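#struct-help
A.M.: can someone run this one for me? Single chain, 380 residues.
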Amino acid sequence: MTETVVSTPRSQPAEAAPLQVPAAPPTKQGGGRLRALDGLRLVAALMVALYHYGGRGGFVTQAWGSSPKEQFPTLHTPFAYGCLGVEVFFVISGFVICMSGWGRSLRSFFASRVSRLMPAYWVAVILVTAVFALPVVAYKTVSPSDALVNLTLLQQPLGVDRVLGVDWTLWAEVRFYALFALLVVLPGVTRRRVIMFSVCWLLAAAVAQGANEPLLDIVLMPEYAPFFIGGMGLYLVHRDRKDAYAWGIAVAGFLVGQHYMVRELWNASDPNAFAHRTSFGIILVVAFGFVAVAAIAVGWLDWANWRWLTVAGALTYPFYLVHEHLGWVVIKALHQDLGLPSAATFALTIALMLTLAYLLHRLVEKPLTPRLRAALNKAR
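D.P.: on it. Structure tokens below:
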């Protein structure tokens, strides 16, 4: 059966996809790279892959030939918690973007974000569109016009069919970048300004939620704001472990963030749910994201300083972009066409997507990111 792929945010069960987009290389306060943060980034991406391949229904059912419930009768429920990998990404994003913006001009910050975000994204959109246009692929691609709009990253507010299921998270990231750039980077990043921005954003997001005003929801992102805010608080903790305000911001981000996730994902009363997540399990995974970033912030994971973690961090973004839709194609080819067992198909699909991510990093990101950054920094 041929279907048009129209992905929707996670609040709509048919399509859910969580990625935080890496910023400048994460570094320790005294110099050196925070390689544990690279590793955590890959862990979050793999959580999302577990969810997309085995923790939900939808189009992946067509790839497997039956529901992942049947493919993974024991693991499909744990896999369903993998969608919370996006919240882990958002906490990391708050930490890294705050660090990346410190001491930068608005132009430099803009150049850094665009050059980091767009090259791999453009190629991923073109690649997925091209693959889905092949006659042998069962999934129908979006229209040429919609595919072109997707190159702008404005497809979601414009109501255009999306090429990549995961790009709704990039739209959240872009809005966070815009708020942070205008209210913190433009006047100059300081501890006081980050604290005021975090506190005011958290309060304003709560008001927006109560007001039920669509425009405020789009700008202030009540359901995602606590995670970005918590990450910013944890970066201030990284700068000064005794900063009570920073700890307060991080804790407030967790307390409000877990509320949104439980409200959105707890489905005990739904008899048709793919998997029944518990409220405790949701809180536990959200807590994992905050605690892991906090452990990195205070230096408890400085021992995790292996060079391969830097490579892992570099693969995360391109892997995140391509793994879902192209993963469907690979799963069908390996499982239905070649007859490989479910577990082997699962592992091989992740391995192949990581290999593709490595190629995208080496052939696209490494040559194009510095050139685009330099061009934007020079532009008048």
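A.M.: thanks! The two ends are 51 Å apart (CA to CA).
D.P.: also worth noting: Residues 1-9, 11-25 have pLDDT under 50 and may be disordered.
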